[in-house]
Design a protein that fits this description.
- Residues 248-322 form a coiled coil.
- There is one protein chain.
- By secondary structure, the chain is α/β, with parallel strands linked by helices.
- It has a domain at 2-89 and 132-204: Rossmann fold (3-Layer(aba) Sandwich), CATH 3.40.50.
- Helix content is 63%, strand content 8%.
- It has 13 helices and six strands.
- Strand 4 (121-122) and strand 5 (131-132) form a beta hairpin.
């Protein structure tokens, strides 16, 4: 039997943050199974699940599309839902956040004409559905889906934990208190609040700030007031400008890094050239010294040979003089007959 803790709701209400928070608290989530998975950098969204019959899902699953398959999920005999966490955001802000993201994405397409970016309806499939970019229409869809999910859970007596957004982002003690029945077997209160402080970024809650004027008008009116398309377009344009500015800053940073790397490479090349020049100088000097040493050795060898030759020549002359003296001596002449006799005797004995 599979057991799951589900995060659902209208979306744009901190559901992705909850996945990160529960991961830090020790629960098995999409980030536990796939740590390399990343969020959409513009929407701060992702980590969604669409449960199937054979899907290997973590304990914590999240889907803003739960209203589309809640009945099928709850009717499965192999799955038990322990509880459903439902963050709640002002419906105007939730709808406006979605429409603003859609408008910003449209502004980000270079191939879309400027005129088209002013339209209040849109479509992506040739000949397909034309859908509204009016936050009131989006709010109707979100409200209907929200009601459908809550009604299905109430009928089956499945625990629902409602959380206020943006308080769940701003107040770590509040969030732990609301989820204590789930978290207390995984993490202490102090550790959970510490994890919250590390992860939470209230600056990412943008719509309320971007539409402050509309929010003020809403508070002064007894009816729900939705921002105009021009206000949404302005908010989307500001986000796109911020994104472009961030990309430009990143590009400038990359350019500076590349320039610094280029300068470092150039300096290394100069140092290498200088080193090569020094080595070549050293090699030429060593070659000169070697030639000088060889020349010195050859000169010394020639001198030695000349001296030996001169000594041999002197010895030869001395021997020649000694022989001449012997041959001219009286004793040599007197003993000539004896030498001839000795020579004859030697021949006779052979």
């Amino acid at each position: 039997m599979k057991r799951h803790l589900v995060i659902a709701g209208t979306g744009r209400a901190g559901t992705t943050f909850l996945v990160q928070y529960l991961t830090a608290c020790g629960l098995e989530t999409q980030l536990t199974k796939y740590p390399e998975e990343r969020l959409d950098p513009f929407a701060n969204a992702g980590l969604e699940h669409l449960p199937g019959e054979d899907t290997d899902l973590p304990y914590v699953i999240k889907s803003a599309w739960l209203h589309e398959f809640i009945e099928r999920l709850l009717s499965r005999t192999d799955t038990t839902i322990d509880a459903v966490i439902v963050p709640m955001r002002d419906i105007v802000e939730a709808a406006t956040s979605r429409v603003t993201l859609e408008l910003r994405a449209r502004l980000g397409h270079d191939e879309i004409a400027d005129e088209c970016t002013l339209w209040e309806t849109w479509g992506t499939t040739p000949g397909g559905v034309v859908y509204s970019l009016n936050p009131m229409d989006q709010a109707r869809l979100l409200a209907m889906g929200f009601h459908h999910v809550v009604h299905a859970l109430v009928k089956r007596e499945i625990p629902i934990i409602f959380l206020d957004f943006p308080r769940l982002i701003e107040d770590g003690a509040y969030l732990y208190g609301r989820l204590a029945t789930i978290l207390d077997k995984y993490i202490s209160r102090d550790k959970a609040i510490e994890a919250h402080g590390t992860l939470a970024n209230p600056e990412m809650v943008r719509v309320g700030k971007e539409l402050a004027t509309s929010a003020q008008a809403s508070s002064e009116s007894p009816n729900i007031q939705y921002p105009s398309h021009s206000a949404l377009d302005r908010a989307a344009l500001l986000r796109e400008l911020k994104r472009s500015r961030n990309e430009m800053l990143q590009a400038n940073g990359s350019l500076r890094t590349a320039e610094a790397l280029l300068e470092e490479t150039r300096q290394r090349a100069e140092n290498a050239e200088q080193r090569i020049f020094e080595l070549e100088q050293h090699a030429r000097q060593a070659e000169k010294e070697l030639q000088s040493a060889r020349q010195h050795d050859l000169t010394g060898e020639n001198t030695r040979l000349q001296q030996e030759n001169e000594a041999l020549r002197r010895n030869l002359l001395e021997s020649q003089r000694s022989l001449a003296e012997i041959l001219s001596s009286t004793s040599w002449t007197a003993t000539a007959g004896l030498r001839r006799l000795a020579t004859a005797l030697r021949r006779g004995t052979k």
